[in-house]
Amino acid sequence: MNFKIRAARKEDCKDISRMIMELAVYEKMPEQVKISNEDLERDGFSPNPFFECLIAEVSDEYMNKDGKISYWSFMQVVCVAVAKRCVRLQFSVLEWNKPSLDFYFTKGAEDLTAKEGWHFLRFHGQALDQLAREAPNN
Amino acid sequence: MFNRWEDLCNVISLRPLLPAVGLPTPVLPTWCLILYFLDIFHNMDFSIRPATLEDCKDIARMLLELAEYEKVLDQIKVTQKDLEQDGFIKNPFFHGIVAEVPEEHRSKEGHTKVGYALYFYSYSSWKGRAVYMEDLYVMPEFRGKGIGKALMSKVAQLGLAAGCSLLNFSVLDWNKPSLDFYLSQGCSDITADMGYHCMRCEGDELEKLAQGGT
C-alpha cells in the first residue's frame, strides 16, 4: 500500500478532529472529547504552537485502516524526537488496550506504571480553578 | 522585612532592664511564647518568582536532591548547562519558578533558593491546551510552610492564564506523603481512575526505532 507521512497542515484539522473522535470511541470515552477543529487550528498552527502533528495519507484506492500505517506514523514521531535531540519519547496507553500495549512493547517501550509505580495525576475543572486562586500574588 | 524572631529576642533581652528604668515588665505568658514560636515557623516569608539563567545552578542542585528522594539518582543525566540551554532559548523546552527565602532564613548550607517547579505546555487531543508539571520540590527543612502549595498554585495560575484546562503531573505510587497532599488538594489519579499507564522509549531503543523509520 502506498502511503506517506508528512507534517500536518491547517487544512488537515478537520480530518485530525474526525480521527481524534474515532480514537476516543475506541478508548470508550467519546464524551470526554471537548475540542473542535477551530481549537486545533488555533493551537497547532500559530507562531508558538502547543503541538506538532504528523499525518499518514494514503492514495484514493486505499480507504481502509491498516495497522502498517499506525506503525510507520509511530516511527516518524520517533524520528522527529531524535532529530530534536530528545532522549525520551513518553506517551500513555490504557491498561486494557492489549493490541496497542503489545505493539509498543515489541518496539522497546517500557511500562513505567507497572515497572516503577508512576501514576498520572491531574487537576482540572473546579479543582484547578481553586488551586490557581490560592497562588501568591507576588 | 519585619523580623519577628529578632523582635522576640529583643523583648526577652530587655525584660531584666525594664524595672531598672521604671517601666513595668511586660507579661508574656508561656502559651503566648509557644504560639509566637509556632507562628514564626509557619509564616516564614518566602517569594515565588520566574526562574532566571542564574537559578540553574540551584535548580540543578535541588533536582538531584529530588532524584535522591525518588531513588532515581543514577538516572539523572541533565546538567546545569543543559538547563541553561534548554530553558532559556527562544522556544524553551521548559519554564521554571523558584521559591526564595530572605537571607536570615537561609538553609543550614546557606541556600536561599529553597524550592522550585519545572513545567511545560503540552496538549490534550480531548481537552486542548494543557500544562505538565515535571518537577515540584521543596527542601526538607522548609516543608510544612506552604511553599509547595504556593509553587503548585502558581503553575496552575500560569497555566490558566495561558488558556490551559488541565494541569498534569506524575507521582510514584509509594510516595504516600506527596500522593496524600495532592489528593487533598482535589486532583484526580488518572492511572487509578481510568487505567492510563505511562509508557516510555529511550536510550538505545529510541535510537534503534529512529533508524528503522522512513
From TrEMBL, chain A:
PANTHER family listed in its UniProt record: DIAMINE N-ACETYLTRANSFERASE, THIALYSINE N-EPSILON-ACETYLTRANSFERASE
InterPro entries according to UniProt: Acyl_CoA_acyltransferase, Diverse_Substrate_AcTransf
Transferase is among the record's keywords: yes
Keyword Repeat recorded: no
One GO MF term: N-acetyltransferase activity
Name of the protein described by the UniProt record: Diamine acetyltransferase 2
Spans traversing the lipid bilayer: none
Keywords: Acyltransferase, Transferase
TrEMBL record, chain B:
Domain of life: Eukaryota
Keywords noted in UniProt: Acyltransferase, Coiled coil, Transferase
Any one Pfam family match given in the protein's UniProt record, by short name: Acetyltransf_1
Coiled-coil regions listed in the entry: 59-86
GO biological process, one term: polyamine metabolic process
Family matches, as PROSITE patterns: GNAT (PS51186)
A Gene Ontology molecular function term of the record: N-acetyltransferase activity
Ranges of residues in domain N-acetyltransferase: 46-204
Similarity annotation: Belongs to the acetyltransferase family.
Listed name of the protein: N-acetyltransferase domain-containing protein
